[in-house]
Amino acid sequence: MPGQDQDDETLLLISRALLKSAGGLTRLTSEVGELLRESFDGVIKTPKTGRRLYEELEKTEKTHIGTCVEIELRHRLKLARGKVLDCEIAGFEVDIKFSVGTSWMIPPEAFARPCIIISADEKNARCCFGFFIAQSEYLNAGNRDQKCSINKLGRESIRWLLKDEPYPPNFWQSVPRDVADKIASGRSGNDRMITLFREVMDQPISRKVIEDVAAQKDPMRRVRSDKTRGTRNHLAKDSIILLCGDWSEAQELIRVAGLPSLGKSEFMSHRVVGDEVALAKRLGLLWPPD
Predict the structure, then answer these.
(1) How many C-beta atoms surround the C-beta of residue 170 within 10 A?
(2) What stretches of 59-154 adopt beta strand conformation (E)?
(3) What CATH code would you report for 175-282?
(4) Which CATH architecture has domain 2-171?
(5) Integer CA distances (angstroms), 237 to 41, 245, 286, 289, in order
(6) By three-state DSSP, how is residue 134 classified?
(7) pLDDT, tens only, 77-102
(8) Nearest Cα to 245, choosing from 235, 259, 230, 232?
(9) What pLDDT, in 10s, does the model give residues 179-216?
(10) 12/6 Cα distance (integer angstroms)
């Protein structure tokens, strides 16, 4: 099919140019994952709203995530804006379509034009990223806004660069609702931090989660330094220590205790037992040290 050959060539040129702009597939995978996490978290706004999950958003807010994804993708990959569609890649105007699931809606101005197709599954933290030409045979009948969903044949025509790829999960998806509510019920940032590290141990916790839980100015103070009433002092009463991926002294204990590795600015609480107690004191991790 001559038309199909031309579509394939167009998508090949766009994908090559996009990968070059991203710095390769590995870098693109990282950028897509990070922008999805930031887009969801930026709309959920946990410190301001107290919400933690996508399901708690209003319908208009869920729609707005697509706009955030479009803006972030264009910014991160330094893509020029198109005159009609969202961006320009390799000389082609390209629309960016995002969906939680597979309900991408194609507007009339993107008909017969290339689209970047992005999907996210927040519950399982999996995403897809690919390319598609919005030909009429790939589209269902339009709604009252003349936007069309992609039909089965169209979904089969999508050229995926990323398929069912993991991306940074929403921390609160892994925390039982009653535990999350218990953490949030603390009267002060210090109370909430203490409960967080008591209830969720041996699991990496990002700086973003700490900021959300503390919900105060200088939230990192709670884990960076303590006086007699600080988080680390309260935890130490139960032989619970804090570990951080930025602390060189934490690496030995992580290795000895067989704990998950920590990335930069990630934290984890751990209850030391047996020989770990002496090791934690020697490393200055059991607070306050003898």
Answers:
(1) 19
(2) 87-89, 92-99, 105-106, 114-121, 126-133, 148-149
(3) 1.10.10.10
(4) 3-Layer(aba) Sandwich (3.40)
(5) 34, 23, 10, 12
(6) coil
(7) 999 999 999 999 999 999 999 999 88
(8) 259
(9) 999 999 988 888 899 999 999 999 999 988 998 898 76
(10) 10
